[in-house]
Amino acid sequence: MQDFLTTEIARAGLAVIQALKARGYEAFFVGGCVRDYLLDIPVNDLDIATSALPEEVLAIFPHSHHVGIAFGVVLVTHGQYCFDVATFREEGEYDDCRHPQWVKFTSARQDVLRRDFTINGLLFDPTAQVGNQLIDYVEGRLDLDNRVIRTIGDPDRRFNEDALRLLRAIRFAVTKDFQLDKQTYDSICKNAHLIAKISVERIASELNKILLSPRRRYGIELLMQTGLMDYIMPEVTALCGCDQSPEHHPEGDVYIHTCIMLDLLNDGSDKPTLSLIWATLLHDIAKPLCKSVEENGRIRFFGHEALGAEVAETILKRLKYPNSLIDDVVYLVKNHMRLMNVQNVRDSKFLKWMAHPLWKEELELTRVDCASSNGNLENYHFACEREKSSPVIKQLPTPILNGRDLIHLGLQPGPEFKTILEKAYDAQLDGLVEIKDEAIDFLQLRH
Ligand code: ATP
Ligand code: MG
After folding, report:
1. Among protein residues, the one whose CA lies closest to atom 16 of ligand 1
2. Do 15 and 135 belong to one domain?
3. What is the pLDDT of residues 148-169, one digit of tens each?
4. Cβ neighbour number for residue 40 with a 10 Å cutoff
């Protein structure tokens, strides 16, 4: 373990604290940085809390400016680092489950008591003697050691003040590998409906952190168990209890199948991208809508990829994701079954699939989909081998035949141009024609 206090960021932070203390103010490292330091997780974001008022902080540090005078936060630059230096504050009653009505400058203890979870409420004085550096008003150290997320004070009150904390609790449990304290957990279940008051942008930002964590499955399970999923993505709740044919899906219903896939993403050779993770979560999202049962009892989900792409788009638009992510997820969901056909398609098709920027993700989605169901990876392996024996294609070749050529041949421009040119291009990719004249003969375009 590298001692946090010897890192450059901690030494820069120490210099800021020393400057504040030299003028008679109290000053501490606070919140996430203290938590992560004690957990032996690299700290890349350091917050400082002080008794100095914002204008006093501004006067001490030449390279500083305030970022919200009402909240008492001043940004102080020291060398290459920039720290939030916040005056100890207390917050009044909350409006709209998110914003305090007033803020008042106060003591270190009161400042800790307004924070969300005990593990985020630790103060650390790097200038004190070793053994006396930690100031713990909320038994945060004990919860850190026991790996427990617990609100500071009554959970019902704290979640009603600010409903974003419902999701933050789950996010910290997932990313730090902690358990939720029983009372905190029960309160999340009771107050889950309050999440509807939080902006979708903030919800999406927490979801991203949960999904990018290797323990994303635990996150989805917590969202389901607490009832939060009902308010964020009821479409995912509907996967629970959506039965599938046991011979194809011995693992269980669509929800279980999806959860296993979320875990299997960790075995890939690369870290999964956010688009791939979202596509995994939503790949079968339309199965409950497409379910039919045949006379022999076999369960089918005709068209679930195409409809799934539409449902995925609706969900991600609702959560105001950027169009680039939505486009990627829609593409992956729409095409998530097509590699089942990889042993039969012509080169033209395969080369087009391979040339797509999301090819690696498509392949990976197929791997986890097959591995989490009947475990038959034949098509996946076939696709990998076929890729190896195909020319390395970063960009598809320029078509040898174009619209101008058709006009030259005396054809009238019209909708059929597209079909003719597609046929010519597929023949080119399949290696059946190499030059313009061959393409013209192949399609019998000369009269
Ligand atoms: P990370 O930055 O790694 O996500 P963090 O604990 O630093 O974790 P921030 O959102 O940066 O989280 O907040 C810094 C600190 O501010 C927290 O540790 C916590 O003490 C306090 N805090 C942040 N958000 C809230 C909130 N919604 N309610 C109460 N306290 C909060
Ligand atoms: Mg932080």
Report:
1. 31
2. yes
3. 999 999 999 999 999 999 999 9
4. 9
